[in-house]
Specification:
Blueprint: H1 11-21, E1 25-34, E2 46-56, H2 61-76, E3 82-87, E4 92-101, E5 117-126, H3 128-133, E6 142-149, H4 150-157, H5 171-174
Antiparallel strand pairs: 1-2, 2-6, 3-4, 4-5, 5-6
Length: about 180
Amino acid sequence: GDGACMRTHTSPVQARALKRFGAPLKVVAPGRVFRQETQDSTHDHTFHQMEGLVVAEDVGVGHMLHAMNTMLEGVFGRKLETRLRPGFFPFVEPGFELDARCPFCDRGCSVCKGSTWIELMPGGLVHPHVLEACGLDPERYSGFAFGLGLSRLVMLRYNINDIRWMLGGDLRFLEQFIA
């Protein structure tokens, strides 16, 4: 082949925006992405993703958590039970995973893989090297970044227990969402 790779995430939009506009900056980058994933009830090889980036002076983990939880409350119309756990992503330090309590079970199911939690939003504080590469002084600026699979969000919002239904093309399933 020609070495081309279909987009696996929308992060380059954030880096270009930060280089072009500098700080302070708030940006949301939605898009369709493609992954070499083993498909299951919560993972698909093609899905829509949204990534967010906030960079300004004195931005911390508390700001990130507030933004994530406020966004989720807006989508669901209520406060979700969430937990924050450590995660590794090379462009943030520290990195986190925000999980939501599984809406489908109390004891574990195929959707939450027996854990009663569903991975929802990875994120973290923007790594100082990323800020430097974008021409910003990491001593002055800090920020957070997060990602969110929109298909997974729709899945939880509308109690769909298998993410593969959304791209399956079954009109009987899709017609229930016509306004």
